[in-house]
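Chapter review: from sequence to fold.
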Amino acid sequence: MKYSKIPVARSIVSLCVSKNINHVVISPGSRNAPLTIGFTHHPQINAYSIVDERCAAFYALGMAQQLQKPVALVCTSGSALLNYYPAIAEAFYSDIPLVVISADRPVERIDIGDGQTIRQKNVFENHILYSANLYSEIVLETEATDKKLQQKQFESQKHNEREINLALNRAIEEKGPVHINVPFYEPLYDAVENVEVNPLQILPEIKERTYSENQLKAYADLWNKAKRKMIIVGVAQPNVVEQQFLEKLAQDPSVIVFTETTSNLNHPEFFTRIDTIIGPIEKDENREALFRELQPDILLTFGGMIVSKKIKAFLRNYNPQQHWHVDPKKAYNTFFCLNKHFEVSVNSFFSNFFPLIQDVESNYARFWKDIKQKRQARHEEYMDEIPYSDLKAMQYIVPQMPENYILHLGNSSTIRYAQLFKWKESLRIFCNRGTSGIDGSISTAVGAASVNAEPTLVISGDLSFFYDSNALWNNYIPSNFRIVVLNNGGGGIFRILPGNKNSENFDTYFETTHNLKAKSLCEMYSFEYESASSSEETEEAMKHFFKASERPKLLEIFTPRKINDEVLLEYFSFMRG
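The token string follows.
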């Protein structure tokens, strides 16, 4: 086996392997050659080469999201590292473990006019769990006899090994991004065979706090007195909550559970489409009374970011008396009324809390479940009469989704359309909601697909797709990968916002209208390409889009640019009935 001649490079590779970090995404470069040599020659490492660092980082994010363990990123010095930042911010807010390993120039080469040098130390400090800034190592020849130089090298090596351990452990323990910045002296390409590598080992420690009966009793007493309890689940991994707890919540007449498409949590009694409940109330002449009827005494939340702006606006205006959030790591004061953060996993919390609580007589759940049924009927009625549009296209996509797919949703309009539909329970649904950016949706989905045997579909708007089209520039896209692009000729989501939408200024600087098509990209990257421009063509295309093929496929659905906002805004008025 081949190793870099530079000890710190060997230590990084060895410690990653020892901590079961065996997927590494490498962007080509020279300064990172010692790391590339070590990772690509190690039999326990799966190495991937992706040129575009921004795409590479989101690709690794998608892998880590699916694997639920750290994935490493390796790049050269200079601006290459900065291209990782959007994915690092997403990983930070979505609790996804990434290990960023950047090669650097020795400290004395920074700010003297050398090429590919920037100030890399602590460059991600606002969005990183740990920054390990390593020392440069000069390779000593075996005949070296300078004792002071040997001692300095020994001390540098031990500092580096400790910092590497601490960084990797934080990624594992706290599930988030860490940064290891390692300066290298030349020569960079020298390698050695079969050297013994035994770096310092510091084991990660994953500790989970628990709450005793005495600590929970006061909260259980509040729960047992409240006649209106609302639970909202944000972004979550599939099957994050044990079924027994879901059944307990579903049977309590004083509890309603709101989930989102990205909650990956299913029960027939739960409310899967928050906006279909809240949106019509906003337009009702009795909205004040209805919002007071919906206002909970206690709000319990868990999971990550919440997509629905409507539920945020409602609860910020109609605060519950108590808001509790359950998460072992963090709690956001999303509704400006957070009372308690239970720093445990959801299952741990429920297992200790449920023995202390009881069902409470109330008409809260029944009242809103009746409304939910009426809204479903109105939804179906509205969908049958709307013209061809983004929303109509989604109506054709949803029922044609095969079972057991992994579904990735682009941000902005796509995720919001998806929130209005009931998807098959076997689907696992993801979206980059940590920062809600459009910049890496396709790359994330490609990374997820590369580590899954199950097929993957990503649904994206046109701007999001074209922005991230370099995601298709890699050799790891499986043939069962599918993309649907809703191409309405611009950033249609902006037409929903207030303001003058019929001006050249709006077209150019907000909606960013265009005439781009994905067909040429599909030819370049060897994707099968199909298109549809009407209800009939879309419905027909979806019937065979998911059939097996030798290459990945892309379906581009062209929709009218100027009516999508009207169709969506009218939806909530119609749902009121």
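Two observations follow directly from the output. The mean pLDDT is 93. DSSP finds 21 helices and 19 strands in the chain.
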